[in-house]
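Pipeline run #58 for the internal structure catalog. This entry was flagged by the ingest filter as a single-chain record with no existing model, so it goes straight to prediction. Upstream metadata was stripped on purpose; only the residue string is passed forward. Reviewer on rotation: M.T. Logging verbosity set to normal.
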Amino acid sequence: MQNDYYSTTYDVVVIGGGAAGLMCAVHASGRGLKTAILDTNRQLGRKVRITGKGRCNLSNSCDIREFMNNIPGDGRFLYSALNRLSPADTVAFFENSGLPTKVERGNRVFPVSDNANDVADLLARLCRENGAEVIKARADRIDTDSEGVCAVHTELGRIRCRAAVLCTGGLSYPLTGSDGSGYTIAAHLGHTIVPLHPSLVPLESDDPFCAELQGFSLKNVLLRAYEDGKLIYRELGEMLFTHFGVSGPLVLSASAHMRDFENKTYRLEIDLKTALDEEKLDAKLLRIFSDNSNKTLKNVMPEIIGRSLAPVILSMSGADGDTPVNSVTHEERTRIRTLLKAFPISVSGPRPVDEAIVTSGGVSTKEVNPRTMESKFVPGLYFAGEVLDLDAYTGGFNLQIAWSTGYLAGMSVLNNS
């Protein structure tokens, strides 16, 4: 039998010192509970420190109704958590704790400093000030007795406790500690793990032009995503071609809608000329052809769409690049116009889950009390953050889920009132 790490018994052990774990620990320890945070990283909040390219898009300045529109699955589980800690409440929490925030495009909330370390450092400081202890150890099992949770097993020894909160994250960014261990612990205690998939992840394509265009970025384009021919996503923004396919903000958001690669077929279309409808674009093509009547099509295409995309679109249109533009047929011009308004990209699948921003799937929310985050099976076992089967689109929504569920768990644990 493993020896106890401490002779004392903690009220609550928070397993994982990420966004959800830190928010949970701040509020559990703030209620006077003897709290321990288990985390193996040198610094707490390691994943928080790299989010938003190091700037930390910590929330989205929207109401709960709009928030729900940014959850691709069944977000109703989150109503209680969001009503207890809404996006506005979250901003107020950080502001009142000494971290000024600002709102940018898309209602994205960032710290004024543009430094994600400030967010993690603030939460770590609040934990220390409230008396929470940090134990550098990895949990491998939670023990229970007739009353519920009684201890957490680590390589250092057994840590006795009255409750435990699993905040271990998903499978994305494994170097930050999100290695999927929480799923194993939860499953050992009888919880169902909804199949895990990458979400907010770059997409792979078999189209050879993607590799040819590697590093080429597009701005102010409209991306459409289709599932078995049905439009499932449509958004204006930026994206990037890579050696394996496509990435960038638009692609990451689109990937969150692609949830069944085993049974569905997905494809993308890009509107490269969003400012012009079909009729106006056709008129512009005719005008450019007229102004360059003595030039060949391959020499005029860069003026239409730029040097990088010009040869790709010309090849896909099937038109002969050596044709003088005054000899381009109506059918050839129509094919070029169609490609400019609906440039097709095949999707063969997502990149590996360790390249994803978040993990889709996890502990089934059907087995967790939405008003407390407590397990319906094991008294004293709570969940928060990405370990749950909850994920959302980009824009601060996933971090808000972590804050809200972490807060609710921290306020509910061992609260018998």
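catalog note: The radius of gyration is 25 Å.
catalog note: The longest strand covers residues 230-241.
status: ready for reviewer M.T.
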